[in-house]
Automatic annotation (TrEMBL), chain A:
UniProt domain ABC-2 type transporter transmembrane: residue ranges: 18-367
Tagged with keyword RNA-binding: no
GO molecular function list: ABC-type transporter activity
Membrane topology: Multi-pass membrane protein
Protein name: ABC-2 type transporter transmembrane domain-containing protein
Taxonomic source organism: Ornithinibacillus bavariensis
TrEMBL record, chain B:
Domain of life, per lineage: Bacteria
One Pfam family, short name: ABC_tran
Protein name: ABC transporter ATP-binding protein
Keywords: ATP-binding, Nucleotide-binding
Sample GO molecular function, one term: ATP hydrolysis activity
Domain ABC transporter: 2-223
PANTHER family for the chain: LINEARMYCIN RESISTANCE ATP-BINDING PROTEIN LNRL (PTHR43582:SF2)
SMART domains: AAA
Listed InterPro entries: AAA+_ATPase, ABC_transporter-like_ATP-bd, ABC_transporter-like_CS, P-loop_NTPase
Length: 377, 223
């Protein structure tokens, strides 16, 4: 193995740039795409103003929840500043959590808890309002359930006035006071949950797996190249058999890939705040063994590098689509059992050990090696 | 001793070799001549174990082809007709690549000496910048790394300048006479064949080469 490493290294050294590029591309590519989509989503968030008059735990909890949403970019300011910025259209809309918010909710009062300002250009007012309303529902429901169960019961049974009171008007702006408990009640029955998923759900390791699929295949082009070279006639007279030559080289490539996978884990943890765990490492290891074997077996079927690269790209596209990694559209393609099974990346993407395709790829490698040995015997 | 007995080989309907029998002793240089397509390369491949005959037997000392293939290969140095080296590597790297995977280990000094013996004095140059003659020399040097008893060369001097040709010729002669190796090689250069070979093996149905070489006074193996 040491001798093979020495010999292979002589060849690797001759194309350091392309070797390094393909090894590092899954890492760089993933980091770039993830950070870019994150910042695009940051930019596309709706700027809203939040005025927190009530200095209470419940009011702060609501503020944090609104801030945590991917839909909005929250600016906390005074009411005066907020309205000024709303007039300049720097903010899409403004929401005021009024003084006494917590006690009102705890007492079951519905009026004047939160009011909002919007303009003619407040395009996203409706969805933002709905989101805040449902968050309030969540909070009030929880608080009331905890502290005032009996009181709640009485309120729900006794009262039935769900009016929306307009409190004041400011030139163009309309200040609205909404009976939030009213709205809350409606949501309460429809059991609506606030979805907190980003607009595009890029999965770091999923993206990495797709790019790795391409680069692992590209880096296996040595199999095609060496097949067409007369230098291989010498392999019959080497100390090691042809099968052993290829097997050792596959192992060397596997080790090289794993080295860069380690780098991927490190960089994703540091830069993308991915969580490392022993299962993840095992999933990556099994994925990598499968991928290296599969790439070797596929490459061995080709005579021309150009065709091989083209097929690689096409395969990657198909796999990306049926995996939903590039097009995260559920229902766009029916997730049939067959589609899942023929996808070599499926187990890894599903957060499992790559067993089925791992076994398939090892089997393919063994057949390929056996045939190479027989053919050149 | 390399012993060939009633060797036959056909490709589909094309009977290339028919009932070939001859023996070669250590230290002998055998020239293999015949028109294009006569079966020279085919015979060399059979002798090199990388192809197998339809009929007949070959043996090297006490080893039988087929049965002892693995063992025989340790003693075979085969120089393919097409230059078989890593184009992107330098002379030095080529030598080291094959030394690492060879039956014999050799030091850097020994490897370099192998090249110098043939006057291949480029060492760190990438192979793709070498002249045809230099490449042929390297092609031969790599084959000698594991000190083979039998050297089989398919047109080792084709298409190169006269000086390189002479250098390779002298080197092969030394390999046979000093190190007692068996050498079988093909060439279309009849002067070279006359000068270098102890015996000449003419194959093919044509008597042209036999007639041509009879005057050389060299023994011709009739098959
Ligand atoms: N692998 C093969 N399959 C079919 N025919 C072959 C093969 N190798 C050689 N031949 C045929 O055998 C004959 C001898 O070829 P070869 O030994 O290369 O001749 P030479 O080296 O003397 O020019 C030719 O007619 C050639 O077409
Ligand atoms: Mg030939």
């Amino acid at each position: 193995m040491n001798d093979m490493l020495y010999a292979r290294f002589l060849l690797w050294k001759k194309r350091p740039f392309s070797m390094l590029l393909w090894l590092i591309l899954p890492i760089i590519g993933t980091i770039l795409i993830i950070t870019m989509t994150n910042s695009i989503q940051e930019d596309s968030r709706i700027p809203i103003g939040l005025v927190v008059e009530d200095d209470s735990a419940l009011a702060h909890a609501l503020m944090e929840k609104v801030k945590a949403s991917n839909l909005v970019q929250v600016y906390t300011l005074t009411e005066e500043e907020a309205i000024y910025q709303l007039e300049k259209h720097d903010l899409d809309s403004v929401f005021v959590i009024h003084d006494g918010y917590e006690s009102s909710i705890l007492k079951g009062k519905r009026n004047n808890i939160i009011s909002s300002y919007q303009t003619d250009l407040s395009l996203a007012y409706a969805p933002v309002k709905e989101m805040i309303v449902s968050l309030v529902q969540e909070e009030t429901g929880r608080a009331k359930a905890a502290h005032f169960i009996l009181d709640m019961n009485e309120q729900y049974n006794g009262q039935a006035s769900w009016t929306w009171d307009e409190i004041s008007e400011k030139s163009k702006e309309i200040q609205q006071d909404e009976n939030l408990l009213n709205t809350a009640f409606r949501y309460y029955h429809s059991e609506q949950q606030v979805e907190n998923t980003p607009l595009i759900a890029w999965n770091t390791w999923g993206l990495w797996a797709i790019i790795s699929f391409i680069t692992t295949l590209f880096l296996s082009d040595w199999v095609i190249q060496e097949k067409s070279m007369t230098v291989t006639t010498r392999f019959s007279f080497l100390r090691i058999s042809r099968a052993s030559y290829y097997f050792q080289n596959i192992c060397l490539y596997l080790l090289l890939f794993l080295l860069f996978d380690l780098l991927a884990i490190t960089l994703f943890t540091v830069l993308l705040h991915e969580f490392v765990s022993v299962p993840l490492v095992i999933h990556i290891l099994s994925f990598r063994i499968m991928m290296t074997g599969l790439a070797f077996s596929i490459a061995n079927c080709f005579r021309s590098k150009g065709t091989f690269y083209t097929v690689t790209i096409l395969l990657a596209l198909i796999i990306a689509i049926i995996s939903g990694t590039i097009l995260p559209i559920e229902g766009f393609i029916p997730k049939t059992r067959l589609l899942t099974q023929i996808n070599p990346l499926h187990e890894f993407l599903a957060g499992k050990i790559t067993i089925i395709w791992g076994v398939i790829s090892i089997f393919l490698v063994l057949i390929t090696l056996f045939r190479k040995e027989r053919f050149n015997a | 001793m390399l012993k060939v007995d009633s060797l036959s080989k056909r490709y589909a309907k094309n009977q290339v070799l028919h009932q070939l029998s001859f023996q070669i002793h250590p230290g002998e240089i055998i020239g293999l001549v015949g028109e294009n397509g006569a079966g020279k390369s085919t015979l060399l491949r059979l002798l090199a174990t990388i192809d197998s005959p339809d009929k007949g037997t070959i043996s090297l000392d006490s080893l039988t082809y087929g049965k002892d293939k693995k063992e025989i290969r340790k003693h075979i140095g085969f120089v393919p007709q097409d230059i078989a080296i890593w184009d992107e590597l330098s002379v030095r790297e080529n030598m080291h690549f094959f030394e690492k995977l060879s039956y014999q280990s050799k030091s850097e000094v020994q490897l370099k000496q192998l090249c110098l013996d043939m006057n291949l004095n480029k060492w760190d140059e990438p192979v793709k910048t070498l002249s045809g003659g230099m490449k042929r020399k390297l092609n031969l040097a790599i084959t000698l790394i594991h000190d083979p008893k039998v050297l089989l060369l398919d047109e080792p001097t084709v298409g190169i300048d006269l000086k390189s040709k002479k250098e390779i010729g002298t080197y092969l002669w030394k390999q046979a006479k000093e190190f007692n190796r068996i050498i079988v090689y093909t060439s279309h250069d009849m002067d070279e064949i006359r000068e270098l070979c102890d015996r000449i093996l003419c194959i093919g149905n044509d008597r042209f080469y036999e007639e041509l070489l009879r005057k050389s006074g060299k023994e011709i193996i009739s098959v």
